Structures are given as structure tokens and as C-alpha cells.
Fold each of these.
Amino acid sequence: MATKKSSVAFNTLERENLFRNPPKDKSAYPALLAAVQPHIDSFNAITVDGGLLDLAREDIGIKSVFDGTNEKGSLGNKLSLRVDKIYIGKPRLSDHRDKTSLRREIFPSECRERHITYRGKLTVKLGLRINDGPWISQDRELGSIPVMVRSNRCHLENLAPYDLVEHKEESEELGGYFIVNGIEKLIRLLIVARRNHPMAIVRPSFAGRGKSYTQYGVQIRCVRPDQTSQTNVLHYLNDGNVTFRFSWRKNEYLIPVVMILKALIETNDREIFDGLLAAKDRENTFLTDRVELLLRTYKGYQLYTKKETLQHLGEKFRIVMGVASDMSDVDVGKEFLRKIVLVHLQDPRDKFRMMLFMIRKLYALVEGSCTQDNPDAVQHQEVLLGGFLYGMIIKERVEEYLESIVKEVRREVRRTTAFDFSNKEQRTRIFAKVNENIGSALEYFMSTGNLSSPSGLDLQQVSGFTVVAEKINFYRFISHFRMVHRGSFFAQLKTTTVRKLLPESWGFLCPVHTPDGSPCGLLNHLAHKCRITTTISDTSSIRKTLASLGVVSPATASLPSSATMCIQLDGCIIGWCSPKLARVVADTLRYWKVEGSHDIPLDLEIGYIPESRGGQYPGIYIFSQQARMIRPVKYLPLDKEDQIGPFEQPYMSVAVTPPEVVPGESTHVEFDPTNILSIIANMTPFSDFNQSPRNMYQCQMGKQAMGTPGTALRHRSDNKMYRLQTGQTPVVRSPLYNEYGLDNFPNGMNAIVAVISYTGYDMDDAMIMNKSAHERGFGHGTIYKTEKLGWAEEKRRGGPSSNNLFGFINQEEIEEQIDSIHEMGESTDEEKLLKKKAYQSLGIKQEWLETVDLDGLPKIGQLVKAGDAVAVYHEVPKESESRSRFPQNKVFTYKGSEDAYIEEVRLLGVEGNDNKPMQQISVKYRIPRSPNIGDKFSSRHGQKGVLSQKWPTVDMPFTESGMQPDIIINPHAFPSRMTIGMFVESLAGKAGALHGMAQDSTPFRFDEHHTAADYFGHQLKMAGYNYHGNEPMYSGITGEELHADIYIGLVYYQRLRHMVNDKYQVRTTGKISDLTHQPIKGRKKGGGIRVGEMERDSLLAHGTAFLLQDRLLNCSDYTQTWVCRECGSFLSTTPSIKKIGFESQVRCRRCAKPAAGFKAEGMVWEDGNGGQFVGGSNTTVIAVPYVLKYLDVELAAMGIAMKFNIAP
Amino acid sequence: MSDQRESYQPPAGGAGRSYAGASAASGTMHYLCAECGVKVAINKGEPIRCKECGHRILYKQRTKRMVQFEAR
Amino acid sequence: MSTVGTLVFCSDCGNLLDSVTGTDRLECEMCGTVTKDPGNKTVTTQSAPSAFPSALRLKKSAVQSLATEDIQTEAEIKQTCPECGREKMWFYTLQLRSADEGATVFYRCECGYRFNTNN
């Protein structure tokens, strides 16, 4: 709870001090670290002792393989394998590749600069056992896996800002991402169904599953302690039967539910009946009929005891489960239950009770006494964290590794029957054959985001798990860590219900921060106060506490008839009580939870659903596990902070502001109404005055603004970085701005903005900039592009390995002669030729040396243009070749089209190989981008516009105090957009600038009685300006006073990264597609712009038919080609062979007849194959588009001939 | 005081751009180590390592030649 | 022998016994115990009140449901009708153009005259 609220003050001195002397103990902005907390904590949970990997390897269990062939009934010796420990090391230099370095740690900055992956070694301690002997352990290295920055496997963990700066990182380095091949990537948060909670689903596709299937089902996503999940679904059939469905290794299986019940515990029909029907339900014939049918249908299987049922199940699922051959059917059945049925519970009795509960809920859904649960509501959702997903993948891969060892042993046993398990060399041979490189599989996952898993991990998507953590500016970067995606599966659905914003998301998902376009509503951002739990809370005392409140334990033989409300803890039934008592229990638990007594953890989610007529199925559902969203609110009875989750929120009464509290009804009150907004949405000033889509656009555009991506730019080699040279802090800001330290990353500039209809150049969302403001550096930005030059190490087998080196092959020669050659005169042509020859003899061109230094690398600070040499390299001559020819120096050229300056050159050495010379350099280019006409700007209210003119200051309107506006915006931009927030910001900015103070722009501060206009108007009046923000202005052109007072003030403008230099495309003639002879597409390839169907329509509408013909024929694929007049075909014309005295002419093959007999010279013509023909001379040239010939050929390939009539 | 009135003289030796800089005689260029900041002399064909700390990334130093910019 | 409704369970092992065998004796498959058939029982089933809706009853009931078309959602504005000169007009907005643009406003007058404006 933030007891100390930050103010809006500029805090210039404190920030300066923080920059000069970064703190040596902890970060000054804890709110930033809290924002990234879900990612880092989830990764830490994997590697910590007793963490997810330890739980995972316990779950993998023991895999066995036999060396006998099962012929004589004996299986032979048994080799058992298990995983004893999984280690992930911190990134270090490997010991055998590099023996000389002292500092062996690899830091993230080095990985970024060298474009490699930040990874740590994955070691697995295998346990081997032969028959029943002792366990032998063996360490195996399984490659290196990418490691999250600032996690507990990173060297930067817990470093203070001072130490971070020492290690070439930002002082506020957040971490939470991986570095893969030099690119920062992170695993997106995904929304999945809430765990361990049965949900009633009505889905029409359920009905299509089989003959009597209906659309009703109850689905539960059960999560094991190692976070892997298994979904079980109960389907309701028309006749009353219930079927259990699950998916294993991407196949689906259906089992009658009574078989599961009878396999779990030794039970009889009576017990099942009693469990399903409470006392008052006995009268309900709907239920009794169905239960009767359920039990009677099962009699057909004739499996009565638990052992029989387990044997039956084990027999059927033996192959599918992939168990050892020596397990009995009963054991396989038990393994089946352990691995698939309600995996979040360990005790079969708990599973039994839960199963009965689910069947009852299903019957209630069908009957109509309860309604379906909405899977799109945040009440039934939780977040899949990146670290947990990573752990799941590692577990699957390790399990696959064990299975591949088993497979390899089996293969070996089949080949050579003499396989001795105890022979160490034979074992080592097996290990050598198995693919041990799990590290590269994980690196592939991180770099592509594709999941190749045999089980699919119970997720509905296979790709799109990782994104590049773009560092366009800081807002974009931090919003990556707060974004939650629904899943790419939902992006293809046509229904829009997934995308809707529901009131239940209040406080958890930001209502405003979502992109517009195809991911609208699917890609949400967490509210800035919403946290995600990453640890299991301690719930050991809950059962005791509940018993003390009067809750009946489920183990009691016959429950009292009043105890109808179920109490569940993480999907396990822990008690029953009456509905009246349930309300008391829920309230008391909450009271004790907030108070801190009775050992009830604070982030426990107590979901009390009261009884209703046709509403949600009632019960008290308590959740304590990971991956839940929770947020802080104030608990009124105790006046302390309470953490609530989305499951309980719909049934709670949370007032928004203290005046709204209804005594007797409200139990909680929000700390601040802005807690529902995300970090970016909070930065929009006066967002409560804007139309909400405009706020959404600002949330988008703030992330595209050219700003300050970081402070450690010197040590980064991103592909492209945008930087604003003249960033300013906004005068109008919110206190959260200081809390998140966003002043370290300025995103725009304060501009004097006049809303005036003045030049006529600002129509349709264009804006005008003051030319002098531009010349003084308003909006001046720079782009940094990094290019890696060199040769990747490729080992080609058999082919000649090219041995290239950077530098001139004849460096000493050049050094000696170059000065003298340069001095040579160029006055006469002869001298010029001599000079040219002199350069040639050295093997270089004159212009190379302007940009390249004598070591072959570019000069830093030098201007390079398109085609200039950037680096010189040569091939090391082999001993056999003589150096007779001129020395051969080759060159890398600058491939961009814009002029750039060389900013940095890095020489990258190779890890481990001490004898290899430099193979790669990394060159950073700096391209200055001063604002041009056509560059996009925007205020912070979704008012984007393109710079249309740099208006000279002399022509600008001026105020009485002599100031001209920096930016002129058209008044037409406001009426339909309704962004009143910009007007208020204008007033506030003006007042703030006049009084020298920062203004607070948090939304929900003003109302009808205390208006913003009054508040800021007063400040303006104090400063001597007009209360309403208008000022009389004079025209810059005529000098007369304008008839109306102009609204002028100070607004924070952002420069967006869409610049005309990156978009313009021009072409007269150029490259052509081979197939259609039409201009190709693409700006980079010099392509043309398509004149599409709609453009054709408008040309026709104007009546410009020839213009259309010009565009589509003459400037596109105009060709002249031969056609035969008689048969009307393009394809049959062919040129005849030239003979002496006769030219080559084009004849039609089809119309010609083979020559037979007479030899009239002029009549006979020969084709390319030697055949002689007569006739077919009725050919002519016509002008057609080339695609017509292509169409002709394609149709001819299908056996359709086109015949053209040529006239005249 | 009077010598300050003299017109500005561009640095000597800059008329004809001398291609060979400080490394004329030796042919070796000096680079800065990314980690310890020490100046390391590397010849052509030598492996890239800092002599002091063994780090494998070296930065190139800025050119001694004058680069002219427009104040725009 | 335990009976619940029409279901008969074996008293020893709790197994559900067949309902119709023709004879008076019900034999349990699991434990072999013989139970006497308790005879026919009458069971009353009540359908839920919402199972057979009557349109007439719905019209008379206190709670009525309206379709979206029936609800009057237009707002009134002081705008002079260009045709008949009435002072008040009804209007409603629809987001017909791109989300970037404003909503299109449709005006309707009592005389039947309609017109619309963009932004």
C-alpha cells in the first residue's frame, strides 16, 4: 500500500543526484520492479530448491527398459532411469573451450553486443539402476538454455543501480526478458482457464461429438504442483449418461464416468447414489431418473470391484501411457488415475468427491437450476506465466530425453542381443547416440515462439508464445511486461464475444489500453496495481479454522440435510455447510484474513457464491495457488488493505470513492479510482475529459513515440533504435509519472499550441510547425542502425574453406605509398590516368580511403553515403597461389539509401577460439532525422497529424507579449473527436509554465461543482492572462489584430516514428517480375505502387480511359508479340530459320503443312527442329499485355485453347 | 592580448589529409577494451582479446581526422 | 434391501438391482443376496414451471421482455427541421465510418424527413 504518495513536482535536483550518484543499496523506483515481478518471480520459481523443476522430475518418475525379448516369458534384466536433479547454471565461459580468462562470467551486455544468447548450462543428474541394485548417478550436460535477465540465474540479480551501471546496464534495468541471438525476447503472459475449478459450459460444438451428445459439459483444468495441466471434461448425453473426456498426447479419449468412480475407491452403487443426491434431491425425479440410468448403463460392463475396474482400465491404456512392461494391469490403471484424472489432488477419496461434485453440477446445469459459467469473464480466468511455461517445456524435454534413451537401448537390444547393462562403455555408447541438446530446442522456442511438444501442453496454440521486447521507447518496453494475450486461437474466431470488455475486469485489466485493429480486445494490459501471485500461500490452518466455525468435514458418513453448500480449497472439497452459515463463514474468513489472525494468508481468494434461482452454482471456493490476479482494496471494517481476486469480486460490494460508501452494504472501497488503469493509460492527462476511443489511441501512440529508449545506448547493438535529442519533461503530468521514474526516459516536447484556422495547410489532421522552432531543435531525432559485417563460422565439409580477414592485403605497401599517390596532380588527363593506375596497382579505389581506415575498418564519425565502402577485407592467399596479379581487396558497402555517420565500431572476438582472428565487426550508423514535411506528430490525446508545412516565424500569428506558437492545429480536429482533455491540458500547461510548477493531471479529480476550467482559469488569472485561456493575437502577415481571441496554451507533443523518409516510394521503370513482366512489389526492391480495382473505378469515373490504358498496359507489361491471323493463337507462331538470301520470318505451325515434294525455294521454311513446312505465313504482330500470354499458356496446360480474332 | 586577435589557423598538417595517422610507422591500431577500457594494440590477423582482462569486445576509437557537420 | 424412489439397492453390497425380472425375487450379481421385490411404486414428476411457456400468460405477467427494436433509444435535440420547420428532432448515432472518424448522426423529424451528417 502506498502510504507515501508521490507528488507531481519536477524533483530536478533529486533526479540529478540519482544520475550522478546511483544508489548503492536499492533502486529508487520500486514501482518499476513491481511491474516486472510476475515474469521474474515465475522464472525464479523454476530454479529454486524444491521449485518447479524439482517437482517436475518427481512427476516424471522412473522409466524402465528390459534387455530380454520376452520370448520365453522373461523380460530379462531391467534398467531403470530417473532424474535426480536438474541444474541450471549461471552463464559462464565453458571450461574446456577457454582456459585462460580470469573473469569467467558472461554478462548480458556482452551478449547484446556480440549478438549471442544469454544462456546457462543445463545439467541433469541421472540415476541408473540395474534390476534392484543400488542407484548409480551420472551427470550429463544437456546443452545451454536461455536464462532470464535479473532472475536468480543471472549475474545481475539483486544488484544495486550503482553496480548495474558498472556492468554497462541501465541503472533501472528491469530484467524479465531473455537475450536470444542478441535480441531481447520475452514470453508473453497468456490467459487460460482458472485452475482446479469446475466450470459449467454450454457449447454447441459439444453436441457434434457423437450421437447423443448434448451441448452441456463441465470442464475443469487441473494443474499439478509442477504447473503442467490436464483438462478433464464431463459430457452430458441425451439419455442422462455422463462421459469423461480427456486428451493425452494430442488424442482424445472418452470413458464412462462411473468407471472412473469405481476405479478411484472401493465403492458401490448406493454410495454413488447417496453422493450424487442430497436428501431434498430424492424427490426430484429429473435427477433420480438420470442417476438410475447412469448406474444401470454401467452394469453392462460387469466390473464390480475397484480391482476389476483398474485392471480393465490398465489393460486398455497400457500402450497409451507408455509404462514399463513389467507393470501389472492394476498398476497401470493406478498410474492412469494418477496422471490423468483430477491431477491436482493426490488422495483418491478427494478425487472421488470432486468427481461427484462435478456430476452434480452438470445435472444442475442441464436441469436449469444453475447457469453456465462464462469462460470469457475474468472471474474464470488466470494468467499463464512465462517462467512456468518455460519450466513445463524443460520438463517435457527431459522426459523426452529419458524416453529416447529407453528407445535407443531397445533398439540396441534388438540389434545385438548381447547388451550388458552393467558395462559402462556400452552405456556411454548409448548416451552418445541420444540427442542431448535440449538447450538448442529451448533456444529455438525462444527465438521463434513455436512450441513443438508431443502433448501440446494443454494449450490451444502452437506458436506466438514469445515476442521481441522492442525498445522503441520506454513505454513500449514496459507495456510488453504488462500485456496479457487471450491466445492466438481466439484471433481466428469470428465471434466477437471474446473481445468484449466485461464489467468483471474492473481493476484487473485496463479498460482503455488495448490496440485497435485485429488484436482489439484480445491483447489486454494489466491494471497497474494488479499483481499476479507466483507462490503458493500457506493454507495448513484453513481446515482447522473452518471446523471451528461449524463446517462439516466431508469425511463424516452422512452429512446433515442442511449442509448443502460446498466449500472447496483449490479444487478439493474440504467441507459442507448450510447456506446461512456459508455467508457467515465467508465474512469471518475475510475478517481474519485481513486482520492477520488464525494464520490465514492475505492473498487467499475467498469466492463466496450465494444461492440463487438459476444463477451460478453456489459454494465457497477458496484459491491459494499461483497465477492468480489480485489487487489491493481497502477493507472497511478494519480499515486495512485487503487483496481481492477476480473470482470473488462480482459478489462483493466495492465502493469507488469514500463518499460513495453505502453503510451496511459496502464492504470495501478502492484506494484510488485510477487503480483500474494500466501504466500507460495513467499517463494520459485528463483522460476523463476525453472520448474513450481517443484514450485508446493514445495508449497505442505513446508506444510509438520517438523518445529515449534507454540510458545505456552506447553498450547496445539493437537493429534499429530511435532517439529524441531534445526530450523534455511534460509540464502536465500525473504523480505516477514520478513514481515510475519516467523522467529518465523523456518521450516528447512541450509546445506552444494555438488552435486557429490560419494557414489552410492544416486540413484533415495535418499540423503546422514554426520554422524557427524546428531550427532550434524541436523534435530533432536520430536513428541508430546496427549492422553486423563479417563471416559467420560455417564448417563446410569437403568444400574449400574461405579464409577471410579484415584489412588490406597489402597494408604496409599502402601506408608507404598512399601519401605520395594522393599528392599526385590531377590537372591533365594524363595525370589523372596515371593516378588511377597507381591506385589500381595498390588494389584499392581512391574513394575507399575516405571512409575506411588503414586497418580496413570504418572511420568513426565519418559520413557515408549509399554505395560507400565501409570495411575492407581480403582472402588470405594459400601457399600455392602466387601473388602475381594485383592485390585483391574486397569491400563491404553501405547498403542504406540515406546518408549516415559511423557512430561505433565494435570488434567481436570469438569465445574460446584463441587462434582465430577477427571474423565479425558490428558497425552502428547514426542517421539524423530532423522533422520533415510528412513526419507524424501527435499530442497525448489521440490527435495525430502529419507535419504539413514549416511556417516561417515572421508569418506566424503573435500574441501581445510577442510569442508565436510552435504548432498550429486546426480547430476542426476537436468537435467530432471530443478530446476536451487536450483543451484542459492546454490551460494547465500554460498556467504551469507561467507559475513554474508542474500540474497534476490525474483523472477523476474534478467534477461539476469543482471544474477544471475554474481551477486552471484562476491560476491563469493570477498570472495576468485571460481566465479562459484565450489571447488576442495579431496576424503575422497583415499585422492586424485578429477578430477573435485565440485559444493558445502549452501541450506536450510526441514525435512518432512514422517518417516520410521510411515510406516514400518512387519508380519510373525498374525491376520486373519474371512471370508476368509486371513491376514488382516492395519499396526496398524499387517496386511500383499498385493501381488496384478501386483506383481503376475512379479513373473510369473521371472518364480518363487513356490514362487507365497507360497505367495498366503501356507502363506495365506492354509487349508486342506474333499471332497467327488464321488460327488466332499465340502459341503456334515460331520464327523460321534464316537461309541465305531470306530473312527469318515468323510462321504459324498449325496453319503450315509439312513440306512434301516440290522445292520452291521461297515457299519452304524450316523450324528449329529441322522439320520443313510450307505455308502458315498469315502472321502479324500485335500489342498485348504480357499476362495475356501467361494466361494463354496456363489455360493451354489445362487443355483449353484461346482463339483470338484479329481485325483488320 | 594581441595574439588573440590573429585569425584562426586550422591545425597544421590537415591540408592534404594524411592517411597514415598515429599508426604510420607501426601499422597497428589501438582499440579500447569494452570491459576495462584499456588501450589494446591489435595487428591485422591477431585474435581479438584484451591484454589485461581477456574480454572479447573491443571498441574502435574515433578518427583523428576532422569531420565537418552542418549546423542544421 | 434399501429403496429410494424406484431404485432398489442390495442391502449387503449396495449394488443396484435390476428393476424388472418378471419374478418376485431380485438377485444381486455381486454378492448373490436375494431381495424381495417391493412392488410397484408411484412416482410423481413435476415439470419445471418454465418448461411449457404460454404466450398469453406471458403477455399478462408482470415481467415482460422487449426486443431490441421496440425500445425507443433516440434522443431529442433542439434542431430545426429543414422541411417542415418543427423545432425538435430525434437523432441517433452509428459508428459507420472508421473508428478514427466520428460517428454519423441520423436526424429524424416527426414529419418523416430524415437527414444525416458526418463529423
Note: The first strand of chain A starts at residue 63 and ends at 66.
Amino acid sequence: MFSRIVATGSSVPELEVGNDELAGLVDTSDEWIVTRTGMSRRHIATTDTTSSLAAAAARKALDAAGLSADDIDLIMVATVTPDNFTPTVSCQVQAALGNTAATCLDLWAGCSGFVYSLRVADSMIRAGGVHRALIIGAETLSRVVDWTDRNTCVLFGDGAGAVVLEASDEPGVLACVTRSDGSRGNVLRIPGLANSNPWAIKAASDADAIAPPPSVISMDGQEVFRFAVGAIQWSLEESARIAGIDISSIYRIIPHQANNRIIDAVASRMGIERDVFYTNLQRFGNTSAASIPLALDELNRAESIPVGAYLALVGFGGGLTWGGSVIRWAQTA
Amino acid sequence: MYDQLKSIIADQLGVEETQVTPEAKFVADLGADSLAMVEMVMAIEDKFGVRISQQEIKDLSSVGDALSLIKSRMGGAA
């Protein structure tokens, strides 16, 4: 028993914000942003939520597959920006789709969330408990961006991507590997809520100690860059090794869309043609857990990926977390 | 070793080797930004088999700084 991707979908908010507009918010310029990131614009949510984007992406994937909502028995959403602590985004997607058959599960693994979710769903399908899963990466990062920090606010965008993964006798997912290093968690953070219950306040010797830290993204760009280059390299090598294929036979690598410079560095260090890496961060920015399925859907709709072609998906991000998957492309609707 | 270092720096930062002098400042003279500094250090680590910490990268100002750091890391042998 294997699992394979049979359809893709994506959704982004209507509003596009270009670099020039950001230059009106913080001290930056189009040239500065393009040189350091490769990004020109990103979609930003105004009325959309993580759940509404996730549900819209899921509907497109279901439509593409010719499936109805109740054909799905697992809904997974990878996100770091859920609309609520509870209900989960996946439960909200279920309600929006009118599905009653699925188990709904959110997964937090930073920008690696989609690859982590793929590993979980693939394992559940191979174990025989699940027949057909929706795996969604969805974010509204604009709500956790510090819009006064010019080093980070230019990097992120909102959006969602989804795939339908189903049980198959033919292999689709050939390998899926994941790793974590919690000891380096501080290099990329979005703090949660402080505990300000009456007893915590009483126990705090310094009132500032319990002042809620703002829930905004902070990161050490240099540290993340170095981590990312190594993480992508490991993920590609390890997933190709387990899949039993040579990296040179991969048709397209879809990396997490964090920064063009990271991808350039990996391509040059590993001796892989830059064009093998599919990037759309120029137009979408870094959408964290949504970036890989968003890029995969765009690629799938823009050109016909040859049936049987090998694709590699590579995620890396907060936690720290990272991972990669090699899939053999199946016929998609 | 200095010649190898010069060649890595020139290659990574996209400058002529003649611009790479011990006095040259990475940011002001050779046009490096923070990501280019990390990439250059990663290439130096690969070439010389040394490990340079994140704090040391932030403290690297000139080519001469890099040279003395690598020398000290390699046990003073140049």
C-alpha cells in the first residue's frame, strides 16, 4: 500500500502588496528587498482568515479530483497562524466543506508543517486506517508580522495550498523524512500568550516578567540562512537515498519559499541547476506552511508535470524543523 | 593560505581579487550584505575545515580579521 497525490489546489487573498508600498511603511526599497530576498510582492489578508483560505484551497483540490467532501476521511492542516486555539483550522475546514466523515488534525511545525503533515498522512494511509486525505498548508502570517521591523515585514505573505492524497497500489510518496532540533528554537520565534492568571501575577517578582511578549515573528537571519542551507541539503540527500533515486533524476525540487538567496546557495553548493528549483516567492513571499503546496499547485496548473516524474518537496523552519519528500508524480485530474 | 582565502572571498562576493586586501572591509569596500557574509563563511569553513560561530561572523569586519581568525583556528600555522 502506498499513498499518492491525485489533485492540488490553492487560494490567496485578493490584495497584493508590492515592495514600493512597504517602502512607505518602513525604511526599505524595492532594490533592497529584491536583492536580499528575491521578493517583489505578496498577498495580504484583509477579510480572509486562515480557515477561509484553507477551505478555498481544499475546495479547488476536491474539484480538480472530481471528489465530494465526504470522500475525505482525514483533513490535516499545517499552520502556525490558526484562527483559534480551538476549534482547529482543520475542524473549521471540515465545517466549511460540509464533511462529516473525516478526522481533523492540525499540525504545528513551522515552515516544515506541510512535509511533516505529508509524512503523518502517508503513514496513516499505509497503515490502512485512512483512504483519502486532504493535506492543507494555510497561513495568515500578516497577523504575526511586526510591521515596524524592516528586516522581517518584507518577507511574509498569506495563502493556502492543498493536496488530495489517496491510497494506491502504485507508489506516489517514495520517501518522507523529517528532523527537529529544539535546542536552536530561539533563532526563529513567534511567542504565544503569557500566563497572567492571578497566581502567576502574584508569583512574579517583577511585573514585567509576565508582560505578554508581542506575538510577532522574530528571527536571526544569518543563523536561519546557515541552518536552511544545511537542512535542505540533508533533506534532499536523505529522501533521495531512501527513494532509491539519484538527485540528478529529480524533475523539479519544490523548496519552502523562504528566500531566493537560500535556494541559490543550495543550488550552487550541491551542483544542481538553479532551474530545477521551482520558486514563486517573487509573487507570494514566504507563506510558511502554505508555501510548498501553493507552489506545487501553481506548477501543476502551469505545465503538465510528466506522469512518473520525480518531484522533491523540502521544508525547513521554526522549531527548528526540517524535512523532505520524494514523490513519483501520478496522473492528476 | 592567504591566496586561497582571497580567491574564496572574491568568488563569493563577486569582486576582483585585487580588491581583496587585508584592510578591505567586507561591507563598506566589498559590498557584502549579511547573507553574503554567511555564505562566504560557509565556503571558508568547507575549504579550511574550521568552524566559525555566529558571533564570530558578526564580528568579522575586514579581510585581515578573517585571516587572523582562520590562522588562530588552524593552530597558528599559515
Note: Chain B has four helices and no strands.
Amino acid sequence: MTSVTPDSVSSARPDVLALGPVAWAKKNLFSDWFNSLLTIVIVGIFSWGIFRLILWAFTVAQWQVIPNNFGLFMSGTFPSQLYPRIWALLAVVCGLAGLSWGVLGRNVSTLFSRNVLIGLGIVCAFIVLFPPTRPNSLQLLPMVALVAGGAAAGRQIGRKFPGVGKWISLSWFLSYFVALWLLGGGLGLTRVSTNDWGGLVLTLFTAVSGIVLCFPLGLLLALGRRSALPVVRLLSTVYIELVRGVPLVAFLFMGQVMIPLFLPIGSRPDRILRAVIALALFSAAYLAENVRAGLQAVPRGQREAAMSLGLNTPTTLGLIILPQALKIAIPAIVGQFISLFQDTTLLSIVGLAELLGIGKSILANPAYLGRYAEVYLFLAVIYWFFCYAMSLASRKIEEKLNTEN
Amino acid sequence: MTQFQTEQPLAHATSTEPVIVARDVEKWYDNGFHVLKGVSMTVYKGEVLVVMGPSGSGKSTFIRTFNALEPYQKGSIEVDGITISHDLKNIEAIRREVGMVFQQFNLFPHLTVLQNVTLAPIWVRRWPKAKAQEVAMQLLERVGILEQAHKFPGQLSGGQQQRVAIARSLAMQPKVMLFDEPTSALDPEMVREVLDVMRGLAKSGMTMVCVTHEVGFAREVADRVVLMDGGYLIEENTPQEFFGNPREDRTQKFLSQIL
């Protein structure tokens, strides 16, 4: 035991000894012979794999299939003379995204920090340099500008009117109907049959519709399963357990084949609508269990405290229980949304030309025979991008809602 | 075991107007355990009543029947002239008039301290937000948490949280406050700050029912002390008599265990 003299006591946190790269590698990668062996083997396998991939991508792969069919990938057989409507939809989404970003970040000191600027720069460079997007870079670059401009404007608006948050939610809600209008036509625009919706646009549309529909449904089912009324509880439980016992593919086929059977002849709902309903009904059962887990994690005392203050049941639920339960359940809920997004690929089985379906039909074209690796790799990157964006968003929301410390 | 009966009403600090009248309250848990075996008790306006007893005696359960957090099967409870029934409106009306402070604080962790205090006045009393905040700030000043008003409960110490919980209950301007072991979950050095707030509250004339093991607090502040054990009310006495010269053997035994 060494004694500490007063002047050696410092209240400042000692600096963590910075390891040099060699020392760091020695400590973390080559600490003993077994770890060294593991490091060498794993690094070897990885670099070999990456080397082969790069070699393949630059010498063997024939990427022509991607730019030649870029329109198909993005929007299926949507009539090309109506592409401006898709661009308008993208503009609406980008503008709103920028505005929301600005409003949410109104209290951040610098909205366009160095990292954000680098990110925007990379996106612009990508748009200009990536061959498939290069023909459209004149349309895509303004989208980036729209996001940035929207952010700057949203920040000003958010500072001037602090209560603007709920208008942002409302405009996202309205934008859904604007999207429907721009895609489907009507009200002065040429109608486009849903048979011509396809590609990434269809994937995103079905995923967003499915998510928007399954969330309230899942919430109700979760509450129903914990209801004090036995009939409600029984019905919710039966629904959840039945749906969870059926594979999604079977559910989608049922949606395509059976929903029309229950409805009067002539009132055949649209194929995409049926698919979205099936998707939402299916995901709601899983979502309900995620929400229920969140509800169970809220301590009983919270309910008692709220009730002892005289709050009635709906207020207790809406102001005390659900905000805490949903916060706990965010990772699971977003996980469910991500799998719903990936589940949209199954729509190609029931004949909808969503992103994967379009990929398959392009591969069936004799001109692109055997281009599996190129097409599927491209699709994988797109799916990864959106899933990762969702999980990133969920982490941001969790951080924002954290009230400990 | 015979149930204790008061032969004559004890002297009360301020009035003889009853706020809570419980008559022969009996309760069984869902598993069939008979937790309250016919307990009668009257709480008068402006008095501080301390309920003591070993754990499992039913004392917490008993005071939780006063605001219908626990249902009971037999007997009757009247709060501020309203008899507790199964009617939800009736229960909500009673809960508005009865404040409760819990052992585990039960603050709402997703709301700031100020929002915790203003929530019920805004949503139940329908006060305008500005009025609710003004009253809340006064109460927070009274319990000494004013500087922390915009923090979240998770950022406060246990003692501070419990003081916020007291302010939250007071914001509803209740006729009676129930304290369910308010200091049992606190570190020893924080017990005092909470008891000080409760002392101040008692001095202000608030009607209080406290389940607590704090003998010093009971001696100093209580107008009456009652002992519960095994689902019965054993003894009801002035603090001097209760701690100095208890009437019942059970009380003596209980006091010898805790003192």
C-alpha cells in the first residue's frame, strides 16, 4: 500500500494512455500464439474474399445490366413519359425529410457539421460518378439540394414556431396521399394501373403502407391481449396465435385468393391493396407481442401512481403507460419493421413486380442471361441501405428518448 | 385474537369531522389469503395518523383500500362523505381527493419533474397549463426541488424523487394524504429530508395517514398511532401512551422488536 501525498492527488481524470498502432495490434490481435493464429487466419480469409470480389467486380462482372434497366429497377413498368411524377414524389419526400431534419435539429448548434457536409459530399459524388445514376444526376443533385435547403428552412421555422412539430407529422401523413395521387393518377393526372407499379417504388410503397397499417393494429392487439375483458383478451390472443402459426407466403396467397371470395363480385380490391392488407395483418400479430413485452416491462407502480392521482384509464394508458412501453419496445418494433420491409420480397411470389420481382424478370430476359451475381448484389445493397437506415433511425430515437442522466 | 375497540373517542388535534371512515373492512387476496379481517378506523380532519405493524400485517393493503387501489370484499369505506363503490366515476372522484405517496416513489420517468407535478392538475382538474405550472413551482419550492424542475426523475437522488412525489400528490390539493412507507426505500442519509417535508406538511394542517417504521417521526408528529398485526387492528393510542405505556401485549412485543 503506497501512501498518497496531497499534491499527487489530482481531481482531473487521468488521460487514457494512447496506444500506438503497433502496441494496439499487439494487445488486441497478437496477445498470444493462439490469438495470433486466429488473426492471421481470419484476416487471410477476409482479404482473400475481398480481393476476389474486387477482382470479379472489375474484370468478370458485366454491370451493363444495371444502368440499362435502371428505370425498371426503380419504378418497374411505370410509363416512362410519366417519370416526372416519380421525380415529383421524390422531391416531396426529400423536401419533407429536409424540413423534418431541420425542425428536429433546431436546437443543435451547427446543423451542417463537418461530418454531415462530408456525407452530403459523398452522396453528390456518388450521384455524379456511379454509372447507373449518372444519366439522372441532373435530377438527383437538386434532390440533395432540396434536403439541405429543407433542413436550413426547417431550422428557421422550428426556431420561430416551436409548436411546428405536429405539423411535420401531419404533412408526412398527407404526403402519403400525395404519393398515392402521383403514382395512381386521377384528379387531373393520367391514371396509371397498379399493374404498372413496380420496382423500388412499389417495394417502398408496400413497406410504408404495411408499417403504417400494422402499427395501430398491433398496438390494439397488444392492449387487447392485456385487457380486463375476457372476450377481448381471448379474441386478441386467438388472432395473434393463429397468425403467428401461419407462414407469410400462405398468408399472402390467402390474401390474393381468399379476400375476393368474401367480398361481393365486382368489388374486387386491388392486388396491391390486398397484398398490403395481408402484410399488415401478418406483421401486426408479431408487433403486438413486441408491444406487449414493452407493456409488461412498465412497473405496476406507474399505473398505480397515475390512478392514485385520479387519471382515468385512457389518460393513464396514453400519457403514462404507452410512452414508456413503446420506448422500451423501440428496438423490437423497428426490428419488426425491418423484417416487414424484407418480407415485401415475397410479394414477387404472388405476382407483384416489386424490386426482387423486377430483378427476376430482368434476369429472364435473354439479353441478360446469367447476370445473377450482378443483379442480386445490386439488390442486396439497396435492401441493406434501407434496413440500415431504419436501424440507424431507431438508435437515434432511443438516444433522444433516453431520460437517464 | 379480539379486535380492538375504542371505548371512548380519543382527543384529536383539530377536529371531530371524519375524512375517512372504514368499517369492518375485510379483504381476501385472489389466492384466498385473508389479509384484512375486519378493520375499522376513522381518520379525522387535520390529524396525523401513523400506522405501524410488522411486515405482512396488512397495513399497506389497508391504506391502499382508501383510494381503491386495492378492492375489498366486506365492510365499507367512506372518504370525504363518498362511499367507495365499484363505479369507476365514483372511484375517480375519490382518488382526486386522496393523495398517495409510494415506497418506490413511482415518478413518471419519461416526464420532467415539472411535468410530473402538473400532469394531474392539467388532465384531471382541467387547470390551464400556466396555473398548473405556477402552483407546481410553488410546491416544488416548498419541498426544496425548485432548481431541479426541468430535470428528469432519473437524474435526482432518492430523497429528491420522494419529495417530488409528495409535491405531485399535493398539486391535486387533496383532502387527505396517504404515505405508504415513504422512507423505506431510501438511503439512511436521505430519510431526514423526506421526513422534514412531511413534518412541515403536518404542521400546515394536512390530514395524513402514514404507514411508517420511523418511531421518531411517529412520536413527534402523530396525533394517534395504531398497530396492525395479522389483519387486525390491535391498538389505537396517543403516541405517548403507545410508545410509553402500550395497552396490548402485542404492541409491547412489536416495540421491543423495533426499538
Note: Residues 188-203 of chain B form the longest helix (16 residues).
